[in-house]
Design goal:
Elements: E1 2-6, H1 15-25, E2 29-35, H2 40-51, E3 57-64, H3 66-69, H4 75-95, E4 98-101, H5 122-142, E5 146-148, H6 162-172, E6 177-182, H7 183-189, H8 193-199, E7 204-209, H9 224-233, E8 239-242, H10 250-271
Amino acid sequence: MKLACSSLFVAQDSYREKLACVERWGYEGIEVRLEENENLSKEVSEIKDALAQSPVKVSSIIVRSPAYKAPLDSEEASQAKLTTARIALEIGARLGAGVILQPEYRPQIPLPLFDPPKPLSVREKNLLLTFLRKVGEFAEKVSAVALLEPINRYETHYYHRLQEAIALCDRVGSERIKVCADFFHMNIEERDIPTSIKNAAGYIHHIQLGDSNRRLPGQGHIDFRAGFAALCHIGYNGFMSLECMIPSDPEQELPACARYLRRCIKESTDAT
């Protein structure tokens, strides 16, 4: 398994400097966050040029736009999301990385504090499946991979657990749609993280890491060793990228986190 950190963590201006910094901190990959704007094509070209001179790879891609976070609640919203998704998938194909998509990413109001999350309506299910089928068709056309990331109930009402994302993959039926498993969200929604990972064998294409308090791994109470052992069990050898907050100086925190994660990986591997 390989480690990656987010481009948001790296203050350097150029991607050549960003990749050099990531490598110095002890990471083999970078999860790239991009904005859908007039500078996007130029930025992607810069990333491509920087990658040619670095051992660091792009682990995953998120292209943000107003449509990215908005709910998938109408045909107009679906078309706007599809436009962003196609742009992102073309970039993913160009950079050789999976693309994380969301049908919705925003605080839920009212918060589902005690009652279980409200199920999707028939209309929402149909909109979601139609959107994902179009995503799958385009991903197949450009040879990209779209990633469904289950998000906790406080940040979306579409799908929260790995099995829900797997069911969508099966309904859509595209080999180009896979799952991104995030430890922070799994800590909230999964009853047993290692078991859920094992049950998702063949579907997990990318991992995101954040501890129970959404800080760096090792700064909360998630048992990463058990989760990594489950990933070893299913033969996962892809990237695990940081998706969390950094409490202080990245120059100190991120190298220490990489060392901690490598110890966890080694101990997990030794135990399997």
